[in-house]
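Query structure, 106 tokens:
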């Protein structure tokens, strides 16, 4: 199973195992990772699962879709490496993925 590391604003890292086909958001919720609220349940209808993808992983996680970019407009402290974790599907290629959570969700 791929492992994902979530780092919060205090630099506390939590590494959890993810199921192939799940999303980075679903993995966070299943493992009680703080900082991911996921109010819409993964429907890309809010920005409460906002994360910063580590620079080394940006190419593997891909670009945000136009719909995701629109939702990120509602995010807090959006950066070039911002993504909605509900839109990142877990694959074998994402084993070792590192994401950071913002200070707060929108």
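Result returned for the query:
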């Amino acid at each position: 199973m791929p492992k994902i590391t979530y780092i919060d604003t205090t630099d506390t890292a939590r590494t959890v195992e993810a199921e192939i086909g799940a999303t980075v958001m679903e993995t966070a919720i299943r493992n009680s990772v703080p900082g991911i609220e996921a109010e819409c349940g993964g429907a890309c209808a809010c920005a409460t699962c906002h994360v910063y993808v580590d620079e080394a992983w940006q190419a593997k996680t891909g670009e945000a879709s136009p719909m995701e970019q629109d939702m990120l407009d509602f995010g807090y402290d959006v950066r070039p490496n911002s993504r909605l974790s509900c839109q990142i599907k877990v694959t074998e290629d994402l084993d070792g993925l590192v994401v950071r959570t913002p200070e707060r969700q929108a």
